[in-house]
Automatic annotation (TrEMBL):
Organism annotation: Lyophyllum shimeji (Hon-shimeji)
Record keyword Heme present: no
Ranges for domain Yippee: 1-81
Annotated GO MF terms: metal ion binding
Name by which UniProt lists this protein: Protein yippee-like
Record PROSITE patterns: YIPPEE
Keywords, alphabetical: Metal-binding, Zinc
Length: 81
């Protein structure tokens, strides 16, 4: 995990370099609090639940570090034993 200092649509979110067991959706441009980004929603490969998104492109220079990284929203994750 790279950072816990993110927020998603449902509250606290985490930034990761990579994730596993997800399916990436189609890219689309989305206005966000930190500017315009091209993102792909990511889904659980088993149940299809939306888990967050992947940053494909950041249009603001200060946000370029997010490109290729993933956001997982805590509220959308399920703890497994």
């Amino acid at each position: 995990m790279m950072s816990r200092a993110f927020n998603g649509q449902h509250g606290r979110a985490y930034l990761f370099d990579g994730v596993v067991n997800v399916i990436e959706g189609e890219p689309n441009d989305r206005p966000m609090t930190t500017g315009k980004h091209t993102v792909r929603d990511i889904y659980c490969c088993r149940c299809g639940t939306t888990l967050g998104w992947k940053y494909d492109k950041a249009y603001e220079a200060s946000q370029k570090y997010k490109e290729g990284k993933y956001i997982l929203e805590r509220h959308l994750l399920v703890d497994v034993q």
